[in-house]
Structures are given as structure tokens and as C-alpha cells.
UniProtKB/TrEMBL annotation:
This is Cytochrome P450. Keywords: Antibiotic biosynthesis, Heme, Iron, Metal-binding, Monooxygenase, NADP, Oxidoreductase. Belongs to the cytochrome P450 family. It holds the Pfam family p450. PANTHER family: CYTOCHROME P450 YJIB-RELATED, P450, PUTATIVE (EUROFUNG)-RELATED. GO terms for biological process: antibiotic biosynthetic process. Pathway: Antibiotic biosynthesis; mycinamicin biosynthesis. Gene3D superfamilies: Cytochrome P450. PROSITE patterns: CYTOCHROME_P450. It comes from Micromonospora radicis. CDD domains: CYP164-like.
Length: 405
């Protein structure tokens, strides 16, 4: 199979459900494989890491975006994402990122531990109540979806009563992180973005009038050396915090729980030693990455892994494949929480390294030991259904039985 065929197989519905065979077929053509005219698929860990950190490697600029997605300027969803730090290059990216990082500090994240623990405990109660009498319950509906939304709302200062709205808008919008969108997905993303932007506009105005101890206020107030976020940048980056922080974390919880339930001895060891949660979570991130890929273009020619990438090349950086690169991770298809330094690329690398990595890790490090301890009889019930997506890898539903709490 040549690299273009391997890539086509990755794009097929079967490849989206289980991309790992296609990654191996691509890897057979080298860590950086020419997979189409001007298109390179990167499966090597070292090569993906190097490219993500290389200043000549950039996210799509407006000109390129006009070429591949001309409707973006008229789409509230696509334009919001395009104006956020996720899809911006220096110098705008560096300025926005610096201001956002000054607001989204490790201290603020650490301060959320009690909120995360309380929300996780409450959701475990509802999961247990729904699964009383041995009925199968969906882990995604009762836990993996509501926890990240609840935590983001707490972080931003959104009242608990508005969480269902946020959950709906976030679900409407997640399609925008995929490389392609159907017209229906774009229409619902635009509807969600319009309502979400209206909500944030009011929240920002309220925090300007009366500051609170939340991330929205910190972003409104963020400034240094005369720099501030413009009104549009503020909205776009509030939107990206929800879009980037929601289904990604949901997928870490869903994918991670499925792996733990399939490895009862490892799950039992975590139940007895919750202090090992950080190593477990990093190995879960590596083993079945919630974000499988990101894309870049080369502003200049770049040589990597022995391959010359001309200026204007398109790069498909397959983070999920890099996480299983045998040159970096011996026996990569084995889940092994005792592996030394799993060093997942699941949060990316370089200037766009995930701003919320600390928060996502915190949620999973709190949630898994708590779930295993509070629900010792938690087991899978029936076949889970995967979402048919390329970028965000997760489950539509993950049925479990919970036993007696
Ligand atoms: C960027 C993954 C959770 C906010 C990224 C990137 C990845 C990623 C791969 C880089 C994309 C690229 O280079 O093109 C994940 C995963 C998560 C997660 C796997 C959960 C397991 C979160 C959370 C938040 C968040 C909880 C915030 C509440 C962001 C932001 C960026 C980002 C703002 C853009 C950073 C920039 O461009 O400078 N994330 N993320 N993420 N993530 Fe996350």
C-alpha cells in the first residue's frame, strides 16, 4: 500500500473508528511520508515534535484559509476560531498567548482542585443512582460530558444554572476542530457560536462593571507593556477555551476509562495507589490520544527526518501515531502505566502547546481514582460506540454497570 492509499484508509469510516492500522501503514513509508501533492503525513515522535516547535512551520494564515475555506469570513464559528490564538501566527499569537497565560495561571488551575473533586463526586452519585439495580448507564452522558463543561463554567465564572446551555453550544461547535465540516455541522456550529458570543458579550460587560475572581475577569483585565486583547480577540479566545477544553477532556475521560476497564489489574493498582494518577493519566493520553492530529503549513523549506519539505507544504501531524512511535516508546501498543516518561504529544508542542493541559490533567487525575474507589464494581456493559471523527477521538456512548456504591 502506498502512503496515499494509507492516508485514504485513515480517512475512511473504519479508519476513523480505529486509526492505528493506518498509522502503521503510513509509518512504513518513514516518519515523514509524502502522501499526496504537497502533502506530508508525520507519524514520527521526534519529527512531529521538531516541526511543531519550528518557527518556519505555521498554522494557516488568512490567505491560505481563503483558498481552502472561503466561507470562513462569513461564518461566526469559523471566524471565531480563526481569530483565536489556536489559529494565529506570531506576532499576534505570541501577544494573545502571553496575555491569556498570565490570566490562566498554574495557581488558578491548582485552585480548581476542590471544584473538580466536588463536581466529580456529585456526578458519581448521579451515575450510581442511574445505574441502581444493575441497569447499564452511559458513562459519557452521566460523567465524561458534564464534568469538563462544569469545570470550564466554574473557571469562567458562568453560573451553574447556565451549564446546560454551555454544553449544547460546545457540542454544536466541536465540529470546527475537524479538517472537514458538512453543511449541517457548519450550520449548527454557526448557530452555537452566535449564541455563545452573545452570552460572552454580556458576561464581559458584567465583569467590566463588577470584576469577580474568575478567568473572564482576568482576561478582561489582562494587559502588559500597553498590550491588551481587542474586543474581538477576547470573544474569540473565550470561545476557543470552551471549544478546545470541552470534548478533548471528555474524550480523555471516556477513552481513559475504557482502557482502565479493559486492564483490571492496572485499574486495581490505581485504586489502591491514587498517588500514581499522574503517571497513569500521561500513559492514557499517550495510548489513546483524545486529539489525534493537527495541521500546519511550511512558510519556508524545512528539512526533517531526512525529508525536504518545500515551502507551502501541508503537514498532517498525526499526534496519535507519534504517541505510538516504537523508536520513542518501546512496545507502543501496550498500555503500561509504569512506563518511564510516556511523554505524550497529545497536547501538541511548541508555541501552541495546550494552554489547558494542566487543567485537563487535573480533571483526569482526580476523576479516575475517585471513580475506581467509589464504584469498585464498575465494569463495561455492552459494546461502546466510537464517534466517527478524525481529530477528536472519543466515544458516542460507553455503557457501564456500576454495582452498589
Ligand atoms: C491547544 C489538546 C484540554 C485549551 C491544544 C493543542 C492540542 C490540545 C493538541 C495544540 C493544537 C495545535 O498545535 O494545533 C488538548 C487535549 C485536552 C485539552 C488532548 C484534554 C485532554 C484543554 C483544556 C483547555 C484547552 C481543558 C482550556 C480550558 C487550549 C487552548 C489551546 C489549546 C486555548 C490553544 C493554545 C495556543 O494556540 O497557543 N490543546 N487540549 N485545552 N488548548 Fe488544549
Amino acid at each position: 500500500m502506498d502512503a496515499a492509499q494509507a492516508l485514504a484508509s485513515l480517512m475512511s469510516p473504519e479508519g476513523r473508528v480505529d486509526p492505528y492500522p493506518a498509522y502503521e501503514w503510513l509509518r512504513a513509508h518513514g516518519p515523514v511520508a509524502a502522501a499526496g501533492p504537497g502533502l506530508y503525513a508525520v507519524t514520527g515522535h521526534a519529527e512531529a515534535d521538531e516541526l511543531l516547535r519550528d518557527p518556519r512551520v505555521q498554522v494557516l494564515d488568512d490567505n491560505l484559509r481563503d483558498g481552502v475555506m472561503p466561507q470562513w469570513r462569513d461564518s461566526p464559528a469559523l471566524a471565531s476560531i480563526a481569530r483565536s490564538m489556536l489559529r494565529t501566527n506570531p506576532p499576534d499569537h505570541s501577544r494573545m498567548r502571553r496575555l491569556a497565560a498570565a490570566a490562566f495561571t498554574p495557581r488558578r488551575i491548582a485552585g480548581l482542585r476542590d471544584v473538580v473533586t466536588a463536581q466529580a463526586a456529585e456526578l458519581i452519585d448521579t451515575l450510581a443512582a442511574a445505574g441502581r439495580d444493575g441497569r447499564p448507564v452511559d458513562f459519557m452522558t452521566h460523567f465524561a460530558y458534564p464534568l469538563p463543561v462544569g469545570v470550564i463554567c466554574a473557571l469562567l465564572g458562568v453560573p451553574a444554572a447556565d451549564r446546560p446551555l454551555f454544553r449544547r453550544w460546545a457540542a454544536d461547535l466541536t465540529g470546527v476542530l475537524e479538517p472537514e465540516l458538512t453543511p449541517d455541522e457548519l450550520a449548527s456550529a454557526d448557530a452555537g457560536a452566535t449564541e455563545l458570543r452573545r452570552y460572552f458579550t454580556e458576561l464581559v460587560a458584567a465583569r467590566r462593571r463588577r470584576p469577580a475572581d474568575d478567568l473572564t475577569t482576568a482576561l478582561v483585565q489582562a494587559h502588559d507593556a500597553g498590550d491588551r486583547l481587542s474586543a474581538e480577540e477576547l470573544l474569540a479566545n473565550l470561545v476557543i477555551l470552551l471549544v478546545a477544553g470541552f470534548e478533548t477532556t471528555t474524550n480523555l475521560l471516556g477513552n481513559g476509562l475504557a482502557v482502565l476497564l479493559a486492564h483490571p489489574a492496572a485499574a486495581d493498582a490505581l485504586r489502591r495507589h491514587p498517588e500514581h494518577a499522574p503517571a497513569y493519566v500521561d500513559e492514557l493520553l499517550r495510548y489513546d490520544s483524545p486529539v489525534q492530529l493537527t495541521t500546519r503549513t511550511t512558510a519556508e523549506a524545512v528539512r526533517v527526518g531526512g525529508v525536504e519539505l518545500p515551502a507551502g507544504s501541508w503537514l498532517l501531524l498525526l499526534l496519535g501515531a507519534a504517541n505510538r512511535d516504537p523508536r520513542r516508546h518501546p512496545d507502543p501498543d501496550r498500555f503500561d502505566p509504569w512506563r518511564a516518561a510516556p511523554s505524550p504529544l497529545s497536547f501538541g508542542a511548541g508555541p501552541h502547546y495546550c494552554l489547558g493541559a494542566g487543567l485537563a490533567r487535573l480533571e483526569a487525575q482526580v476523576a479516575f481514582p475517585l471513580l475506581l474507589r467509589r464504584l469498585p464494581e464498575l465494569v463495561p456493559a455492552g459494546t461502546p460506540r466510537r464517534r466517527i471523527r478524525l481529530t477528536l477521538r472519543g466515544y458516542d456512548n460507553l455503557p457501564v454497570t456500576v454495582g452498589r456504591p
